[in-house]
Design a protein that fits this description.
Strand order of the largest sheet: 11-14-17-21-18
Strand content: 15-25%
Helix content: 25-40%
Oligomer: single chain
Largest sheet: 5 strands, antiparallel
Mean pLDDT: 96
Number of strands: 21
Low-confidence stretches: none
Shape: globular
Structural class: alpha+beta
Length: about 425
C-alpha cells in the first residue's frame, strides 16, 4: 500500500522473489505497474482497502506509508485474520506522536535530546527563552514531513511556535509542540526488522534532507541516500542493537504493545555520543531504495517472519557493493510544483549498468509517464565502490528529462570526503 519510491522499491524487490508472488499495489505509480497490478485505492482509503482485502484475502499485506499505520489499518486487517507487515496503531505512535516517542525513549534509557512539550504558545515561549537558541520546534503529530523547524534564533523559534499553536498550520498534528535540544553532528538512518521480540538491524544509510547542494535550502522528505554510511562505525552497532532497538521494543512490550514490522531510528552522531532524533514506523524514503538495492536474495520470507514470528538474522543477506539513490524532484519542491510534465529517457537510464530507476511521483497518462508529485524518481545505482555507484547514478540522471527537473549533485559527499 502506497504510491511512492519506497513502495516501488518494495514491489520491485518482492517481484524478484523465488516464490514468484502475485503483487497488487494500492494505488501504486507508473513504476509499480511494471511489477504489480495497480489498484485504484488510495493508501488512506481504509474502508476501500479493507473491503478489497476481505474479498481477495491476500497472503501478506505490506503497508508502506505512516498515515494508514497510525490510523489503524494493520489493526483492522489483523482483526479479519489477515497477515500484515506493519505495526498496529498503538505501536505506530512512535512516529505518530513525538511526545509519546520521547516518553518511550526516556523509559527505555535511549539517548536522545532534552525536550519539553506544550499546548500553550506563551508557556512554550517562556521555556524557549529559558533554554535559548539554536533549538528545534516539532509538531507532535504527522505533518507530511513539514512539522520540524530547526531554528537558529529565538525569533525563528517563536515564529515556528506561532505557526503551529496560533495559526494551526499543521491542523491537529500541531495542537501540541515539542521544543527539543539542537543536536550537532552527522546523521544516519538505521532500519531494523522486528517480529515483536527478535530484532534484526539492516545495513546503515544516510539521507540528505536539504533541497540544495551543500545541505542548503529547505528541508524535504529526502533528496537522496547512500548505503552503507561510514559514520556508523563497527563499535556503534552494539549500542544501536541493544540500547536503541532492544530497549525501545521492550519498553513498548511493558505497556502491552507488540511491535511488528520495520522500525526506523534516525540517529545523530554527536561529539558526546549517539542520540536518537526520531523513530519512524516504516521504511524510510529514499533510504528504502538504497538499502533494498543491496539486499541479496529473497525479501518475502523476512517480511513474513516479522508478521508471524520466527524472524532470524539468517533471513537477511547483503551484497557487498555500496549503493546510492539520487532523487529527481519537480521544480519548486518542497514548495508548490507543477504536475503532468512528460518524462523521457527512462529506458536509457534503466539501461545504465547497475542502475534501477524507482518511481515516486509518477503516473501513466495517455500511454506516457508524467509527473504526479514533488519527488518524482529515485535513480538508484550499485557500484564496486561508492564513487562508482555515484557516477553511475548521475549518468542515469542525465538521461532523464522532464520540465523543471531538479536533483542535488552531491549525494554521498560526506562519505566521499572520508575517502570512501
Amino acid at each position: 500500500m502506497g504510491s511512492g519510491g519506497r513502495e516501488h522499491a518494495l514491489a520491485w524487490k518482492l517481484s524478484t522473489d523465488s516464490a514468484a508472488p502475485v503483487l497488487f499495489c494500492a494505488p501504486g505509480n507508473a513504476g509499480t505497474d511494471r511489477v504489480a497490478t495497480n489498484l485504484d485505492l488510495a493508501a488512506t482509503d481504509l474502508d476501500g482497502l479493507i473491503a478489497w482485502a476481505e474479498q481477495h484475502r491476500p497472503d501478506l499485506t505490506v503497508i508502506g506509508p505512516e498515515a494508514p499505520l497510525c490510523a489503524g489499518l494493520a489493526d483492522q486487517l489483523l482483526a479479519r485474520g489477515l497477515k500484515v507487515f506493519g505495526p498496529t496503531a498503538a505501536a505506530a505512535q512512535l512516529e505518530g506522536s513525538k511526545v509519546f516517542s520521547k516518553e518511550i525513549m526516556r523509559e527505555a534509557g535511549v539517548p536522545t535530546g532534552a525536550s519539553e512539550s506544550f499546548t500553550d504558545a506563551e508557556a512554550a515561549k517562556r521555556y524557549l527563552h529559558a533554554v535559548g537558541a539554536p533549538i528545534v520546534i516539532k509538531a507532535d503529530g504527522l505533518a507530511a514531513g513539514k512539522g520540524v523547524t530547526v531554528c537558529a534564533t529565538l525569533a525563528e523559534a517563536e515564529a515556528a511556535i506561532d505557526e503551529a499553536l496560533v495559526h494551526h498550520a499543521f491542523g491537529a498534528a500541531g495542537q501540541r509542540v515539542l521544543i527539543e535540544e539542537f543536536l550537532d553532528g552527522e546523521e544516519a538512518s538505521i532500519l531494523a526488522l522486528v517480529d515483536g521480540e527478535t530484532i534484526v538491524p539492516l545495513e546503515s544509510s544516510q539521507d540528505h534532507k536539504r533541497a540544495l547542494d551543500g545541505d542548503a535550502g529547505p528541508n524535504t522528505g529526502g533528496m537522496g541516500a547512500y548505503s552503507p554510511a561510514p559514520v556508523v562505525t563497527p563499535d556503534l552497532w552494539p549500542e544501536i542493537r541493544e540500547t536503541v532497538f532492544a530497549n525501545t521494543v521492550a519498553a513498548l512490550r511493558r505497556r502491552g504493545i507488540v511491535y511488528r514490522g520495520v522500525l526506523y531510528a534516525g540517529l545523530m552522531l554527536t561529539p558526546r555520543g549517539l542520540r536518537v532524533l526520531e523513530f519512524n514506523c516504516r521504511f524510510g524514503d529514499p533510504e528504502c531504495q538504497a538499502v533494498l538495492a543491496r539486499w541479496a536474495g529473497d525479501l518475502l520470507p523476512a517480511l513474513e517472519a516479522c508478521a508471524s514470528g520466527g524472524l532470524t538474522p539468517d533471513l537477511v543477506h547483503w551484497k557487498p557493493e555500496p549503493s546510492v539513490c539520487v532523487v529527481m524532484a519537480a521544480d519548486g519542491y518542497p514548495g508548490a510544483y507543477a504536475t503532468g510534465e512528460e518524462i523521457s529517457g527512462l529506458a536509457e537510464a534503466d539501461a545504465v549498468p547497475g542502475v534501477t530507476v524507482f518511481h515516486a511521483g509518477t503516473k501513466r497518462l495517455n500511454g506516457k509517464v508524467v509527473t504526479a508529485g514533488g519527488r518524482v524518481l529515485g535513480v538508484t545505482a550499485l557500484g564496486s565502490d561508492l564513487s562508482g555507484a555515484i557516477a553511475r547514478a548521475y549518468q542515469a540522471v542525465d538521461c532523464i528529462r522532464f520540465q523543471g527537473a531538479h536533483a542535488r549533485r552531491d549525494i554521498g559527499w560526506r562519505a566521499i570526503g572520508k575517502g570512501r
